[in-house]
Amino acid sequence: MTGVLRSPRGVVSSAENTIARVISAAGCRDEEIASVVESSGPERVAEILVDEIVGRVDLPPVELDEEIVVQLWFTHGAKRIAHLVKAGSAGVTCEPGETREPHARIEQDLCEAVRAVFGPRGDGAAATRRLELRGSGTPQAFVQPPRAFWVTQRLLATMDDRDQIGLTELASRHGSDKWGIHRYTPHYQHHFEPLRDRPLTVLEIGVGGLSGGTTGYGAPDKGGGSLRMWKRYFPRALVYGMDIADKRALSEQRITVLRADQSNPVELHRVVEETGPLDIVIDDGSHRSEHVLTSFATLFPYVRDGGLYVIEDLQTSYWPRFGGNSEALDGPATSVGFLKSLVDGLNHEEILDSGARPPGAFDRHIKGLHFYHNIVFVEKGLNAEGGGPAWLRHPPRRRA
Ligand SMILES: C[S@@+](CC[C@H](N)C(=O)[O-])C[C@H]1O[C@@H](n2cnc3c(N)ncnc32)[C@H](O)[C@@H]1O
After folding, report:
1. 335 CA distance to ligand 1 centroid (A)?
2. Homologous superfamily of 167-380 in CATH?
3. Which CATH architecture has domain 41-160?
4. Per the CB 3.0–4.6 Å rule, which of 45, 125, 168, 169 could disulfide with 185?
5. What φ, ψ does residue 254 adopt, rounded to 5°?
6. 330: DSSP letter
7. Structural contact between residues 254 and 202, judged by C-beta atoms closer than 8 angstroms
């Protein structure tokens, strides 16, 4: 490995680029938010916000006897940008526009709302917000608060409090097999929680979506459950998925799906040209050992220090059908055999110059390995603490 981090160009699409700039500005001073809002266009930024709010809002499935319409007004200087959020039994939708008699009206300065939705958790404020709830002064509302109050409260909670839903719950909601068939979500949560509030770039290999029958994972409109789960879990991340099947139609705001074969380094380099440096990589693709190793060798150099590279379904390392082996357990060609060699790499500075183990390409760049049943988390970072002192490494010389 030539350096700690390979720096690709990172040619994200212009839509993703705008979102990335809005997310970074949301953690900065007010002037920087205002400047990004101006340069991106206040209307576009309002659209991004509403899409995000509607995607995140948690309305438990309850029967609503009428559609609830909430008017959002984002103000920016003399401008007022209007969107309607509509909640019905089938879900929540949004569209630009105004209505004369919404159930509720939320008005807020656009820049303040940007910070609330995309800034670090707890940074948001509602100093400029004005809220009108239709019928709030009526005797009926005292006896039986209308459903519209509750829908509005859920919208405000989405903007301000960032309901911190756990990964197991999110995996179940979004139909990812990371919980249920596998038990990975508690491990993910343990390692990812400290990163949750950061503006990250996440790449998952393997978009999924078994369509049943003989079509396997090929259906273009199926899958993406885990990508939507990461998007919800990391409110400030850009999430990328890549798959050998063409799943690009599953792209949406903050999710970009690319087509690439994880066994082909040229295609992997092309993926990173799009994503830029990576904070998290999750390999949930073919699970063939040789593919896992190629992807790791190609992508790990692009992971930032402090980032994580996760490999799922390590059981396949023991199964010949996936290029694994249940006999030669330390063989360097299987996923787990290779990962075991990284454990020696962690302690490379302690290995005496016996020639038993040549230096490994990743020795200085892996500072932690966390193994669980069928999954490993590889922590990127400088591993150069220095070995134990010479007087302790070698037995004392015998006096003549
Ligand atoms: C287990 S599914 C992914 C599930 C998904 N990550 C989730 O948690 O919901 C595996 C995916 O890997 C993809 N895949 C298989 N071989 C691949 C390869 N060589 N390169 C990239 N993707 C591959 C399949 O098309 C399939 O969509």
Report:
1. 17
2. Vaccinia Virus protein VP39 (3.40.50.150)
3. 2-Layer Sandwich (3.30)
4. 168
5. 70, 5
6. T
7. no
Specify the residue with its C-alpha closest to ligand 1, atom 25: 217
Domains of the chain by residue range: 41-160, 167-380
Q: Is the pLDDT of residue 343 over 60?
A: yes
Burial 240-269 (b: 16+ CB within 10 A, else e): bbbbbbebeebbeebbbbbbbbbbeeebbe
Amino acid 2: pLDDT:
39
Beta-carbon contacts of 314 under 8 Å, excluding residues fewer than 6 positions away, are: 335, 336, 339, 374, 375, 376
> 205 C-alpha vs ligand 1 centroid, how far in Å?
6
CA 226 to ligand 1 center in whole angstroms: 11
**Measuring from atom 5 of ligand 1, which residue has the nearest CA?**
208
Average predicted confidence (pLDDT) for the chain: 92
Q: Are strands 278-283 and 91-96 parallel, antiparallel or unpaired?
A: unpaired
Confirm whether 287 is a catalytic residue.
yes
- pTM for this entry: 0.92
Residues 183-228: pLDDT tens digits? 999 999 999 999 999 999 999 999 998 776 545 788 888 899 999 9
37: its two tokens: 């809002």
What pLDDT is attached to residue 376? 98
Please tell me the distance between residue 311's alpha carbon and the centre of ligand 1 in angstroms: 12
Catalytic hit among 187, 287, 348, 365: 287
The ligand 1 atom nearest the CA atom of 282: 6
Determine the Cα–Cα distance for residues 270 and 201; give it in Å rounded to an integer: 16
Question: Ligand 1, atom 4: nearest CA belongs to which residue?
Answer: 208
Dist CA 267 CA 288 (whole Å): 17
Range 196-221 burial, b when 16+ CB lie within 10 A, else e:
bbebbbbbbbbbbbeeeeeeebebee
- 389-393: long-range contacts (C-beta < 8 A, 24 or more apart)? 393/350, 393/352
251 CB within 6 A, ligand 1: no
pLDDT digits (tens, 9 = 90+) for 240-290: 999 999 999 999 999 999 999 999 999 999 999 999 999 999 999 999 999
CA 291 to ligand 1: nearest atom: 19
pLDDT in tens, 225-240: 999 999 999 999 999 9
Residue 204 in contact with ligand 1 by CB distance below 6 A: yes
Count how many residues are written for the chain: 400
